[in-house]
TrEMBL record:
Pfam families: MFS_1. It is found in: Cell membrane. The chain crosses the membrane at residues 27-50, 65-83, 95-114, 120-141, 153-172, 184-203, 215-235, 241-264, 285-308, 320-341, 348-367, 379-399, 411-433, 496-516. PROSITE patterns: MFS. The lineage of its organism: Bacteria, Bacillati, Actinomycetota, Actinomycetes, Kitasatosporales. This is Drug resistance transporter, EmrB/QacA subfamily.
Length: 529
């Protein structure tokens, strides 16, 4: 086929297939997609709690456990935009339900696998089916809600997404302590079954006519290869080192392929990801701010759970309970952010949420290895409010600014930026903490009272301390043990302080981007212009 561009963006939108009969209530549609979204996000956050038990039960190495997370992340990130495109073309309700069924079956298979190789393989399958499910949740909402109510629907969607992610540590901790690690995945069976039955009853037939257009297979391949290489380099950066040839080569290759993908897509008549979407400045900035939002959210949650469990010694359930201010704040912030976005636009709500997160990050500079809960809950509250507000506003900026026929693709674009931001957040912040621990551990151990001749014996413990674990043993003298715990905790907090400075700076950048870069008024009309 010729590479000549045929721009059809100015043509009138083909209306979505009209909902028929009883399948016309948009709020029932919201409930249906919220159930599937809750299942996927809950599963994503409980796995971090389950990993230690998986390792002990299946005799898995640290590298194996990394792949339990990375296989899911890479498979999902590579296919999210494709999942949205399939929904736009084949039917969002159909693709959403295929994703729900597949995710549920893969979850059950993980618990039955009996080997770490099986867990990793079925986690990748989970990621594939999550990529079909997640983008079509927003695509379905975009198809059934009128513009004046879409913002509130997105706010409730964001509330479910935030709350389910935050509840993961509590639910996971309870299941692991009182049942087994397999139950963390088996719990998806009843949730998925209910989601499927309810969806069959209420979801509208929603798709957009594409005629006899050729499906963009080269675009699918280019996007998948580029995202896999980029995400792989990001998640391995902490292990290989950010300056290593493997890390730099993987990230550079991913960026090069993605750049070629953009060039190629701009010259296609029916592209997988229409480059015309990025003509809308609000959509583009919303995508960038979404990545920053989840860089901060997932990165901070990661090291906060290390701090609470490994440094402070709380159980998973106790740690989860102490992060309840975050969970409760997201419940309030998502609909509040949606209401504010409807009234003032994301140009106001998004910077406000970013500023709250920047303030929370700076507050964490006051934390030490013995901080009282009174010093913890204010930043938890501020981050929860900020994340919820930004999620509502950025969803409106991305999906609300896309033409209705591209609702699934826009949902996939948002979810892809979310995954990339989250992967960068955990990997980059863990690397920052590790580097700071390595440079300060010796000094902190000495200051805490560890004898100079004993300090050298802890030089190989940087990796453990970077995860909040003190390198002590049961036969260690009590005075030495206390000094090592004190020095290790202080070194870990030095790393946390470096990490939160970075998150504060990124939040400030996101606030400036949103406040000064977005249009005062936005909507799909701007994209179609």
């Amino acid at each position: 086929m010729s590479s000549t561009t045929v721009d059809t963006s100015s043509l009138p939108e083909s209306p979505p297939e009209a909902p028929r009969g009883r399948r016309t209530n948009p709020w029932l549609t919201l409930i249906a997609v919220a159930i599937g979204l809750f299942m996927v996000n809950l599963d994503g956050s409980v796995v971090a709690i389950a990993n230690p038990e998986i390792g002990r039960d299946l005799d898995a190495s640290t590298a194996d456990l990394q792949w339990v997370t990375n296989a899911y992340l890479i498979a999902m990130a590579a296919l999210l935009i494709l999942g949205g495109k399939l929904g736009d073309r084949l039917g969002r309700h159909t693709v959403y339900m295929v994703g729900t069924v597949g995710f549920t079956l893969a979850s059950v298979a993980i618990g039955l696998s009996g080997s770490i190789e099986g867990v990793i393989a079925f986690r990748a399958a989970q990621g594939l089916f999550a990529a079909l499910l997640i983008p079509n949740t927003l695509g379905l909402l975009r198809a059934v809600f009128p513009p004046r109510k879409f913002g509130m629907a997105v706010g409730l969607w964001a509330m479910v997404a935030s709350c389910s992610t935050a509840l993961g540590p509590i639910v996971g901790g309870l299941l692991i302590e009182h049942v087994t690690w397999e139950s963390v995945f088996w719990i998806n069976a009843p949730i998925g079954l209910f989601a499927l039955v309810f969806s069959l009853l209420v979801l509208p037939k929603s798709k957009d006519s594409t005629g006899h257009h050729r499906f963009d297979v080269p675009g699918v391949i280019l996007l998948a290869v580029g995202l896999v290489a980029l995400i792989f380099g990001v998640v391995k950066g902490e292990t290989w080192g950010w300056s290593s040839a493997g890390t730099l080569g993987s990230i550079a290759a991913g960026l090069a392929v993605l750049a070629f993908f953009c060039w190629y897509e701009a010259r296609q008549e029916h592209p997988l990801l229409p480059m015309r979407l990025f003509r809308n400045r609000s959509l583009t900035i919303g995508t960038l701010v979404t990545a920053i939002n989840f860089f901060v959210m997932l990165g901070v949650i990661f090291f906060v759970m290390l701090y609470l469990q490994n440094v402070r010694g709380f159980s998973p359930v106790e740690a989860g309970v102490r992060t309840l201010p975050f969970s409760l704040a997201t419940v309030v912030a998502a609909p509040l952010g949606a209401a504010l976005t409807q009234r003032f636009g994301p140009r106001v709500t998004m910077p406000a949420g970013m500023v709250l997160q920047a303030a929370a990050s700076l507050w964490m500079l006051t934390w030490d290895a013995h901080s009282a809960f009174a010093a913890m809950w204010p930043p938890f509250l501020a981050i929860g409010l900020g994340v919820g507000m930004v999620m509502s506003a950025s969803s409106d900026a991305i999906v609300g600014n896309a033409p209705r026929r591209d609702g699934g693709v826009a949902g996939g674009l948002q979810a892809t930026s979310l995954q990339i931001g989250g992967a960068l957040g955990t990997s980059v912040l863990v690397s920052l903490i590790s580097g700071r621990v390595g440079s300060t551990l010796t000094g902190e151990l000495t200051s805490a009272g560890v004898p100079a001749n004993a300090v050298a014996g802890f030089e190989g413990a940087e990796d453990a301390v970077a995860m909040g674990v003190s390198p002590v043993s049961a036969d260690m003298p009590a005075q030495l043990r206390a000094a090592v715990i004190e020095g290790s905790g202080n070194a870990f907090m030095n790393g946390v302080h470096s990490a939160v400075v970075v998150t504060a700076v990124l939040c400030a950048v996101g606030a400036l981007l949103a406040g000064f870069g977005m249009r005062r008024a936005s909507g799909p009309e701007a994209t179609e212009a």
